Amino acid sequence: MAEFHEISPNAAAGEKLLNWIDNRFPLSKLFKEHMSEYYAPKNFNIWYVFGVLSLLVLVIQIVTGIFLVMHYKPDAALAFGSVEYIMRDVPWGWLIRYMHSTGASAFFLVVYLHMYRGLIYGSYRKPRELTWLFGCGIFLALMAEAFMGYLLPWGQMSYWGAQVIVNLFSAIPFIGPDLALLIRGDFVVGDATLNRFFSFHVIAVPLVLLGLVVAHIIALHEVGSNNPDGIEIKATKGPDGIPLDGIPFHPYYSVHDIFAVSVFLMVFTAIIFFAPEMGGYFLEYNNFIPANPFQTPLHIAPVWYFTPFYSLLRAVTTEMMYALIACVVVGAVLSVVKIKMASLFKGLIVGAAVVIVAMMLSIDAKFWGVVAMGAGVVILFFLPWLDNSAVKSIRYRPSWHKYLYGIFVINFLVLGYLGTQPPSAIGSRVAQAGTLFYFGFFILMPWWSRIGTPKPVPDRVTFTAH
């Protein structure tokens, strides 16, 4: 049985209440471990606010979602009307709905920036591999949550977007048609699909998402936060065992984060009140029209945060397949010729290349487009083992690495823009080149990350008071 800590009878009422709680629940202990006695590097910069902003938007989405569920009806005949009822007749319903729809885009924006910070500062490297994997799991769950929630307004773009994406699963050999039928619950997107997606969006995926967020934070606080220098502050401790380059998260970074939250909320509210549709990127105009199974929109495209991966899907055509086959053959030849390894492994590489080429020639390009779209996300999970650079942070890598990362960002934005546009000959070629660069960036990382001489890494973090 746990030992109870006594407190002076003359203590203030607040202290008595806290002592009563601490004797039954480790509130003060948790606060100390994760806030006041959690030592974070003293050289955090603006890139380190997007983690707490992601947590803030998650809370906004959960709270607004609870209020929306009170009035929403997951019925194909009533769903669109219930959303209109929320917007027009429920007191402050329009505000709750716009907070939720804007929050979806805000969530992806801050998560993309949070992941990019991890990319440039090497936050996925040892000993934070598990933290990165949990983060990628959050991203995957977030994509599933957003996709399923996107169907719920039952507008034209919601309906046809779900129709197109679910039909993609039918391209999977052998199990595809049955899998698509299982997801839809019917032969077309209908009432059964809406109920399935509603259940997963409201209950199943949020539970997974919350579990992954808790695991992500626990894993982070177990190994400690990374910093812009990529130096482990736990390696240099004072006589009291506290890192010399660390400062308590509270109050230093809690105040830092409160300021970031204040700025974010000002921008967030400005968008809600003045531009909730954001020119059709946050809320498409076609989604203000009730779903009509007999009238296809002129151009079907997902929401902006899915469009980079949608471009990967559309880029894989029959012509693109031949380019990919050539890449596989060249990669296998270079591996066999240039890398010293046992003959058995060379034989395995050649055999694998032959099998892959045979599969690519025998299976429809549509399936490989689906594979490319999924692989664009899944490949992020392998990043800790793809990067072979001698240093973590972009600060101390060869200067040309910065340009390469810059091109990667531009390429990602271009793919995202092309995904919002109708297919065109020029756009398809650009998307195909962008797809090759996207996957080449990661697949060739074990090679290019070793090239060049890194700059000297200091023993302690670099920090200038401001």
Give the tags.
single chain, 466 residues, mainly alpha, two-stranded antiparallel ribbon
Which spans have pLDDT < 50 for at least 5 consecutive residues?
none
SS content category: mainly alpha
Instruction: Tally the beta strands.
Output: 2
Integer average pLDDT: 91
Overall shape: it is globular
Proportion of β residues? under 5%
- Major sheet summary line: 2 strands, antiparallel
How far the N terminus sits from the C terminus, by CA atoms, comes to: 49 Å
Q: Would you mind describing this structure in some detail?
A:
The structure is a single chain. With 466 residues, the protein is mainly α. 64% of the residues lie in helices and 1% in strands. It contains 18 helices and 2 strands. The protein has helices at 13-22, 27-36, 50-69, 79-88, 93-121, 129-151, 156-168, 176-184, 191-223, 249-274, 307-315, 318-338, 343-362, 365-378, 383-386, 399-420, 425-443, 445-448; strands at 39-41, 246-248. It has a two-stranded antiparallel ribbon. The protein is globular, with a radius of gyration of 25 Å. The two termini are 49 Å apart.
